[in-house]
Design brief:
The chain is built from four helices and no strands. It is mainly α.
Length: about 140
């Protein structure tokens, strides 16, 4: 493999690298939100049932569990997208270095990675919708 071919191979790896960066950032955001939800659920669980002025806040726990489930699902999909993207980069670089045709395999892996990323964003959108309900206005 000569230098121009290496340059072209490196240029083709840019899109998957950007996708991988997006996946990492999304996953960090999802896990940050998940941590805040778990902490809030713990705080609400510690409220005694007899607490007259705050006992009603415990009714928010099932909603927090639903949000946590959506975020967990989104994080798993984002991680799967990151794995597909990493495999794509490895596949692309090794195939290019060995002089093998890799275009069809690369397209399949990239479509899978972007599809999983889109599904993770959809789950995240569902969680955001739930989070904007009026229950979060109470402290």
């Amino acid at each position: 493999m000569d230098v121009p071919e290496l340059g072209q191979l490196s240029a083709q790896a840019i899109a998957p690298v950007f996708t991988l960066v997006a996946v990492v950032n999304l996953t960090l955001g999802l896990l940050g939100r998940l941590g805040a939800i778990v902490e809030k659920a713990r705080q609400l669980s510690e409220i005694p049932d007899e607490a007259v002025n705050r006992g009603h806040l415990k009714a928010d726990i099932p909603r927090l569990k639903a949000r946590a489930k959506l975020l967990t699902s989104a994080a798993r999909m984002a991680l799967a997208s990151g794995i597909c993207t990493s495999l794509l980069l490895i596949f692309e670089l090794v195939s290019g270095f060995l002089g093998l045709q890799y275009e069809y395999g690369a397209v399949i892996l990239f479509v899978l990675a972007v599809g999983l990323l889109g599904a993770a964003l959809f789950k995240f959108g569902q969680e955001v919708k739930i989070s904007l309900s009026e229950a979060d206005q109470y402290r």
